[in-house]
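A.,

Following up on our hallway conversation. Structure tokens first:
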């Protein structure tokens, strides 16, 4: 578990997969898990967090969100609230796999996200350190199709 803040969620398109990246403000290791679920539920309360797409990925990052960490709140930025969209279906229109990314809340130092995808396609997740900037990244890649 990291004590450093998860401060940025971003997406990217690649030739064979779509990507979601979670940036943590420091080099320390941060645990995570990613799995397909029937519905992602809000951390703590358990309320459903629906997302567009035929399948939902639950992504849990073991780091507190910005503003609820020990580093303090950065001026001019507001922590996400449960249910907030990071990327809406309209913003991801035309993407091969990704459909939406929503914040499903935080509880006891971990953040949960709902990632809507086109279907239960192969996915893989890994952690990488950007040593130049001392940023830990949790990366989730979702394939555009099953391998042939």
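Then the amino acids I'd put at each of the 148 positions:
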């Amino acid at each position: 578990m990291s004590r450093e803040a998860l401060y940025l969620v971003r997406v990217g398109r690649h030739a064979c997969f779509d990507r979601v990246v979670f940036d943590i403000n420091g080099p320390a290791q941060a645990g995570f898990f990613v799995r397909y679920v029937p519905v992602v539920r809000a951390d703590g309360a358990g309320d459903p967090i629906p997302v567009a797409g035929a399948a939902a990925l639950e992504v849990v990052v073991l780091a507190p969100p910005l503003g609820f960490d020990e580093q303090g709140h950065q001026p001019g930025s507001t922590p996400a609230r449960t249910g907030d969209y990071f990327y809406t279906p309209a913003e991801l229109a035309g993407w091969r796999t990704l459909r939406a990314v929503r914040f499903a809340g935080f509880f006891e130092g971990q953040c949960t996200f709902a990632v809507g995808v086109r279907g239960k396609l192969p996915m893989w997740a890994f952690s990488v350190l950007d040593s130049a900037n001392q940023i830990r990244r949790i990366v989730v890649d979702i394939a555009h199709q099953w391998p042939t």
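The chain is about 0% helix and 45% strand. Curious whether your intuition agrees with the design.

B.
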